[in-house]
Amino acid sequence: MRRLDSPIPVESFSQSFLKQNPTPSLFEAMTMVNGIQPQLTCNVCNTGDIRINGMEGPYTMVLIDGMPIVSSLSTVYGLSGIPNSIIKRIEVVKGPASTLYGSEAVGGLINIITKDPLSSSRFAVDINASTLGEYSVDLSTKITSKKATGLLAANGFFFNRQHDINRDNFTDVTLQNRFSLFTKWDIERRQDLPASVALRLLTERRWGGELQWQRKFLGGDSVYGESIDTRRVELIGNYGIRKDLLLEYSYNFHFQNSYYGTTWYKGQQHTAFAQLRWSKTMGKHQLLAGIPLRYLWYDDNTPATAKLNANAPSKQLMTALYLQDEWTARKNVTLLTGIRVEHSNIQGAVVAPRFAVKWQPAAHHTIRLSAGNGFRVVNLFTEDHAALSGFREIVIQNDLKPEQSWNANLNYSGDVHTAAGIFGWDASLFYTWFTNKIIPNYDSDPQKIIYDNLDGYAVSKGVNTQLTWTMTDGLRAMVGATYMDVYAVENDVKTLQQYAPRWSGNYSLNFPIRKAGITIDLTGKWTGSMRLPVVPNDFRPAMSPSYNLLNAQLTKKWPGGIETYLAVKNMFNFIPANPILHPDDPFDRRGGLYWNANGTPNAVTNPNGYSFDPSYNYAPMQGTKWLLGFRLNMQ
């Protein structure tokens, strides 16, 4: 449907948004979305997640063409493996969406819509290189036959030059070689009976660590390094059974073989999903119903999948039924009610209701109110690989219960048309209440990460606002800001959540000089102070400084569908200080310079008892860099 008609506030970002600030993956591209923060959680292996309104990455559900492809194990490195070249648009919903999508969609969801073969270019190329030694290549071509139209795309990202700006003898950013192949086919049938299938293959090798590390040191204790090898297969498809009945299905396999110093981690995951979705319009009612089925098989070499000293892979089976009614109560009022009943062998039965109302008091002004329930089953070892980096011990305090949340969102969107252009304003108030929330405790013991259900409650609340101005001469300007308060309360003590800045914002300016075929783009991100994981007597501040990342790009269009572009990233050259604690002793050697043989810190060389810890991160570790690129688009 059109975004204007949706009772739920949905933000949509097209290819033009991605081209304003070229990045090698979805993870980096989402930096410029208001209220969304891609967060690195390890400064050696560059694990990361995408946070919506301050909530941790596991609360964000990532879909590809509406299918739950990126989840659990793959959230850690899978997000950086999605190239922008296959994306038609990105849809973002902030707040629980568990009625339609179930577990994991607690904080919100990001739906990646891939390109349509029918509307794709006959041949397209996008190649760029940076002054830091990063190289990205995107190729795609359209294939036609009598009964089907296909898209074939390939992406490669290569970065093999070491950098150590802060001179701690550790790589600032992981070195990577990544290659993915994507194909999607639309099969010709009756117009009201769609059928499509897509396949993506991904292989990636990355490593970070001490500058003198080589692959021969893999798993050893002489030179510290973290190496991650990933293999991934994704299958997505749908098949129209009747005009009102659609079968949707997906499957993905994710394999990871990695070393974090001397710690070996090997994991693999199979995820199969299928659902029958029925939709029908009856008078003023648009009815939607679905029966989804999801099976997840996960195995690794940690105690997470061991039982009585024997291997015991985790097996999760989820079945559900959801019903939704979108009712046009009046010409300018739409009501949406929905309910989802879900059962899994891990959490039992859960009921998630959803409600929304959309009111259009005037032609270009819309007010939306939505509320819903979210729930999530936790898989600690598949979600927090930062715990494997460094030498903290994982402690699970008690049997962990599923988390639940209640959310409300009030949104206004409107625009004013003038002779000079269109002025738009979008604003949202959000509030989420959590029970049984699981928060990793890094503070009680510098040698441990302690997990337990919160004996209290947690809250995420705040406001998003965004202003846009599109002038008749083509100039487009946007500025957005988010203010939020994310905290937990236990025993009447309020604690701010880590990596959740109190305020943040983004801005962009797009200025076309049409006669010259030139476009100038400015994009930027403000990030306010946030709480960071520090240890007792840490010399680093517990709150990060605020900072601004500014990017600029000049694009020139040439005849024949050719474009060249020159970009500069992080123009103010902002670099975080001291991201790794105790980098000169990454193995925490007992009987060495900093630790006594009995495991106590040396009173002279290590009076504060510092251990190696790479989890202190609040900004990218790359300074100013230039990017030169070339595009060819043959229709």
UniProtKB/TrEMBL annotation:
Q: Which UniProt keywords apply?
A: Cell outer membrane, Membrane, Receptor, Signal, TonB box, Transmembrane, Transmembrane beta strand, Transport
Example GO molecular function term? siderophore uptake transmembrane transporter activity
**Topological type in the membrane:** Multi-pass membrane protein
Where is it localised? Cell outer membrane
Major location category of this protein:
membrane
Pfam families, per the entry = Plug (PF07715), TonB_dep_Rec_b-barrel (PF00593)
Q: Where is the TonB-dependent receptor plug domain?
A: 4-108
For this chain, the family text in UniProt reads: Belongs to the TonB-dependent receptor family.
Would you tell me the protein name for this molecule? TonB-dependent receptor plug domain-containing protein
Native source species:
Phnomibacter ginsenosidimutans
